[in-house]
UniProtKB/TrEMBL annotation:
It catalyses: Mg(2+)(out) + ATP + H2O = Mg(2+)(in) + ADP + phosphate + H(+); ATP + H2O = ADP + phosphate + H(+). It is a multi-pass membrane protein. It is found in: Cell inner membrane. Residues 16-29 have a biased composition (Pro residues). This is Magnesium-transporting ATPase, P-type 1. The keyword Ribonucleoprotein does not apply. The keyword Lipid metabolism does not apply. The lineage of its organism: Bacteria, Bacillati, Actinomycetota, Actinomycetes, Kitasatosporales. It comes from Streptomyces odorifer. It comes from the Bacteria. Keywords: ATP-binding, Cell inner membrane, Cell membrane, Magnesium, Membrane, Nucleotide-binding, Phosphoprotein, Translocase, Transmembrane, Transmembrane helix. The chain crosses the membrane at residues 88-121, 278-298, 745-768, 780-800, 820-840, 846-865. Residues 1-32 are annotated as: Disordered.
Length: 876
């Protein structure tokens, strides 16, 4: 390939604006929308030959680092505010306020301390997790190509620099898959389209062009066609542009300072869905207790602190802490052991829930190292002339469109053509490849015929044939020829040409018609070595794999067969276009291979699968995969993916290796499984306690527990349950997608909650018996109830934890140790000096003996219920 410096020289020769002497940078930013290109270059103290390195360094010191949107840090203050806005925290604070209003200062203080502890733990946890994500992200540097000079007299050199070092006034080059590093004004553009989804929500790429003297801009901050913005990326085409604003001064930063524009993912659907159900429960509890107290015992507002405490008892305050800790631990283990980087923590949970994984073919199932195997004419006979035309197309689209690097197919064509590629006819224009049209076109001077130009078009067979002058039979025959080649697993490019009179004006897509078909170039692309095994592993883990490719249906199907995956009936993107979203959802469920997909098709299929209730992961590396990556619950890409893809992926793999996806999914299930177990266990016992307390509150002439006791008990539970973040789940948990389905989940927590409540009520009977039926000693009752609650909680943790230690019959493990601690506190606290402080009395020894019997029975019932639940297919 031609060295970068030479290409910079080409750029200089073609640039319409003469070099400018350096001018000082303006105090206020010039108007990039209205000024002419020349005025704007001058206003920025720059020129088409770029800044000098010294000037760029000065500007970097003045303007600061050009941080990309996804990489901007969240401050601790913002994080704290965010955690206070968490629904549970809000409800807890309201309950605290309510307690303060009725002067229940003890309850109010305990609630506020709970909120404080959970917020502090959460903020520090998230901060630490984010810092490590940030450090890992730093291992994935994103670069921009700038044109700069060593000094005033030096020649312009195009070179890659970290995006953070781009400054206003820099001249940058953009190619397919590049992130737009800052806000820029286009100086020149060829077939440029950009994805502005992060800015405008619009998923289709938007065409952009250089306008030397702009008129009135269209409405909307991101609409001007001659401006591109940080936060967008190049879909296809190329450009040279002037940087007008960086970092916090960009329009994206201004528009998004307020919100973070997150999408709704599987994590939100499950954890948040459950949270809201609980909050409704919580809000219902205090009025219920008050009404019952008033109706049965004629109590008034004095019951309120108890009612509030019961509602607090229901809250899983530690949920955000357990979630963050479990995810952060999983993410750091993945990075350490498998070099897989999770760039958005909740994505790890979603990864554990993935039941459909969509893949592109090239580079994932195959190595994306295509090698030309044949060049054949329309009759299927070898014809080197076809390769020469393909090479002329590849060479001139690469050079005239300023593409930084050739794509893999072009590279293979140039490699196969060798010296001939450079010695071919001289090019005059190029329309670079775009994955929607699946074509690239170059216009060259016709060899030996003055005043004549030849249009050389190469691309997908169907698209090329559509532009050829052919009768339908011939077209069918040529499609058949291509299908035969594809059926052997080859990738294909069709080549067609047309001779035209030379002309001064621009060449456009409209010129690509009436072509003469010249033939096909076929490519071999070896299978990825680990793909076959990984596909088997994924199937074994209950993950359905779907291939979404831009390639020929025959090629895609054969690659699947070679890997031992049954392609079934291949669906082409044209066929999906004829289906409604609902129909596509149904068809997508049973289809494995989708061929000839453009970027929009890939995204639509992913969306249809998600709408059908699947949690979808998407793995891709090309710019044509970007919309689908955005549409999926989890976007994955290899480290070598184009910048735009890597910057928006949730999970970045060290290599293009499907086996790494399998490991990442396992890690996701590990963390997701722990979060699920935590939620199930915590909520079922919380709910059980609330049921029991409500029931006994109706029967007893006094409160079954004092508010302070409820809250201390709650604190003990919370501390013990942090252990779930550290547990190693059993292999059974890792065998299928982890999904918290709110309905099944609620059934679990009410079922096990009722068993828990039954144990509590049995204890109530025991207490009645041991205190000789008088129930006179309230303090003894409270102590007995407290001990029983903590012991049953410890039992539930051990029996329902489903951890590896449980499954493998071993007795150590974080949850086990925490349960033991809880049990010890449950027995000893009422007997310690703290007991009388919390108004707990001593119990007769007989109570402990009877309690042991209740607990033994409870354990048996729990084990039986767990078995039944597992037989019914439920997760523990
Ligand atoms: N440089 C190119 N010039 C012309 N046509 C091309 C070029 N690259 C690809 N094509 C055509 O476009 C088709 C689709 O390519 P695209 O890059 O969209 O998908 P892909 O990367 O092959 O597949 P996947 O989506 O599995 O990664 C190819 O099958 C080929 O026919
Ligand atoms: Mg691709």
């Amino acid at each position: 390939m031609e060295p970068v410096a030479e290409r910079a020289a080409v750029c200089r020769a073609a640039a319409p604006v003469p070099p400018q002497p350096p001018a000082p940078e303006p105090a206020t930013p010039p108007d990039a929308t209205r000024l002419t290109s020349l005025q704007l270059l001058r206003a920025h103290g720059s020129g088409p030959r770029g800044l000098t390195e010294d000037e760029a360094a000065r500007r970097l010191a003045r303007h600061g680092e050009n941080a990309l949107p996804a990489r901007r840090r969240i401050t601790r203050r913002r994080r704290l505010l965010h955690s206070l806005r968490d629904p549970f925290t809000t409800v807890l604070l309201c309950l605290g306020l309510l307690s303060a209003v009725v002067a229940a200062w003890g309850t109010a203080t305990v609630i506020c301390s709970l909120v404080l502890v959970s917020c502090v733990l959460r903020v520090t946890g998230e901060h630490r997790a984010d810092r490590s994500v940030g450090l890992l992200r730093a291992l994935l540097p994103t670069t921009a190509t700038v044109v700069r000079r060593a000094d005033e007299e030096g020649p312009p050199q195009a070179r890659e620099i970290p995006v953070g070092e781009v400054v206003p006034g820099d001249v940058v080059r953009l190619g397919p898959g590049d992130l737009v590093p800052a806000d820029v004004r286009l100086l020149r553009a060829t077939g440029l389209s950009v994805h502005q989804q992060a800015l405008t929500g619009e998923s289709a790429p938007v065409a952009k062009e250089a306008v030397q003297e702009p008129g009135a801009p269209p409405p909307g901050p991101f609409a001007p066609p001659h401006l591109c913005f940080q936060g967008s990326s190049v879909a296809y085409g190329s450009a040279t542009a002037l940087v007008t604003a960086t970092g916090a001064a960009t329009r994206f930063a201004a528009a998004h300072r307020a919100g973070d524009g997150r999408r709704f993912t599987a994590f939100d659907r499950s954890v948040h869905g459950i949270s809201w159900t609980l909050i409704r429960f919580m809000l219902l509890t205090p009025p219920l207790v008050l009404v019952a107290g008033a109706a049965l015992h004629g109590r008034g507002l004095e019951t309120l602190p108890f009612a509030v405490a019961v509602a607090v008892g229901l809250t899983p305050e530690m949920l955000p802490v357990v979630v963050t800790t479990a995810l952060a631990r999983g993410a750091s283990r993945l990075a350490r052991e498998h070099r897989v980087i999770v760039t958005r923590l909740p994505a790890l949970h979603d990864l554990g829930a993935v039941d459909v994984l969509c893949l592109d073919k090239t580079g994932t199932l195959t190595q994306d190292r295509p090698v030309v195997t044949r060049a054949l004419d329309a009759e299927g006979q070898d014809d080197p002339e076809v390769l020469r035309w393909a090479a002329a197309n590849a060479w001139w689209t690469l050079h005239l469109a300023d593409l930084p690097v050739p794509d893999a197919l072009d590279e293979a064509v140039l490699e196969a053509a060798g010296e001939e590629a450079a010695d071919g006819p001289e090019g005059v224009a190029a329309l670079p490849f775009d994955p929607v049209r699946r074509l690239s076109t170059a216009v060259v001077r016709t060899p030996g015929r003055l005043g004549r130009h030849t249009l050389v078009v190469k691309g997908a067979v169907e698209q090329v044939l559509d532009r050829c002058a052919l009768d339908p039979d011939e077209r069918e025959r040529l499609l058949g020829l291509a299908a035969t080649e594809a059926a052997a697993g080859s990738r294909l490019l069709a080549v067609a040409v047309a001779e035209r009179d030379s002309r001064p004006g621009e060449w456009t897509h409209a010129d690509e018609r009436g072509l003469t078909f010249r033939g096909l170039v076929t490519f071999g692309d070896a299978l990825a070595p680990t793909a076959a095994d990984a596909l088997g592993e994924l199937a074994g883990r209950g993950v359905g794999v779907k291939i979404l490719t831009g390639d020929h249906p025959g090629t895609a199907a054969q690659v699947c067969r070679d890997l031992g995956l049954d392609p079934g009936q291949v669906l082409t993107a044209d066929e999906t276009d004829r289906l409604t979203d609902a129909e596509l959802g149904a068809v997508a469920r049973r289809t494995t291979v989708f061929a000839r997909c453009g970027p929009g098709h890939k995204a639509r299929i992913v969306t249809a699968l998600r709408a059908g209730g699947h949690t979808v992961g998407f793995l891709g590396d090309g710019v044509n995969d970007l919309p689908a990556l955005h549409a999926a619950d989890v976007g994955l890409c290899p480290r070598g993916a184009v910048d735009a893809v890597r910057e928006s992926a949730d999970v970045v793999l060290a290599e293009k290796d499907l086996a790494a996806v399998d490991r990442a999914i396992t890690a996701g299930r590990h963390s997701g499984g722990n979060i699920g177990t935590y939620l199930r266990i915590t909520l079922s016992s919380n709910l059980g306690n609330v049921f029991a307390m409500l029931a006994t509150a109706l029967l007893l002439p006094f409160l079954p527990m004092l508010p302070a006791q409820v809250l201390v008990q709650n604190l003990c539970f919370d501390a013990a349950q942090l252990a779930f973040a550290y547990e190693r789940p059993s292999r059974a948990v890792l065998r299928r997608p982890i999904r918290l389905r709110p309905r099944g989940f609620l059934r679990f927590i009410t079922g096990f909650g009722l068993i828990n409540a039954a144990a509590d009520v049995a204890t109530f009977g025991v207490l009645a018996l041991t205190t000789h039926g008088t129930l006179a000693s309230q303090e003894a009752f409270h102590a007995g109830w407290f001990t029983e609650n903590l012991l049953t909680q410890a039992l539930v943790m051990v029996i329902l934890r489903g951890g590896r230690h449980a499954a493998e019959g071993r007795s150590t493990g974080p949850v086990h140790r925490a349960a033991l601690g809880l049990a010890v506190i449950g027995v000893l606290l009422p007997l310690s000096p703290l007991g009388p402080l919390l108004a707990m009395g001593t119990l007769p020894p007989l109570y402990y003996a009877l309690l042991a019997t209740v607990l033994a029975l409870y354990a048996v019932v729990l084990v039986l219920a767990r078995r039944r639940h597992e037989r019914a297919g439920g997760a523990v």
